[in-house]
Here is the input.
Amino acid sequence: MFNATLLVVSAALFWWQSWKDNLPVPRPSWLPSVPLGQMIQLDHLAAHLSRNTADSISARPLGPDDQDWLHPGQATLFHFANPDCPCSKYMEEHVRELYKMFGDRLRFVAVLPSHDQTVYQSGVSGLFPHFRVVSDPEGMLARAMGVYATPTAVLLDEDYRLVYRGNYNQGRFCMTVSSQYARQAIEAFLEGRRDFQPPPQALSSIGCPLPMLQNQANRLAAARSSQTSLLALEEAR
Here is the structure.
């Protein structure tokens, strides 16, 4: 009886987590809109991001390749990941497969939401050993590209114009080839097919809100609540 109950509970938890992981993450209303085709300017972030990156990888010296991704010149896939997000973890193997498929034609950059050295080193030497890895604890890089959740794929062309920003797949395990949207966007770009139009579900982020953006949303909500309380007190007087 106990085993049967445990099995039912486990199945229910798995179903609930699967359902939760496939829900769209609400886009913050205050996040600037970054439309496809827009040129992404990162030069003004160079000093800030390089400082965070240098602090995070103090265990190894900085080389010239650690900063080349800040500048146009090569088509680049930015992988926004979070080791604490279940959906992000489910996508790791698929992202590494994309590197095997396209790593000789694209530059790959993994963006982590923390400059904690343990998290950063796991990205450098563990999850994405062949990627350039950068920490973005304040969300400056995410905001520049209109990213608000993980995992998110961002594809920029050689001039750093936004080609694709969205999900890797409709499901969390990337098992359905027909809905591997990031792969389809990369293939269309490399084949010169500029008419690729991802379906709406590819552009509605699923997964986990970026921590720094979630914190900002919480602060805004608290400020609004405080303002409402003050107005109520004023009216009561």
In short: DSSP finds nine helices and seven strands in the chain. The mean pLDDT is 75.
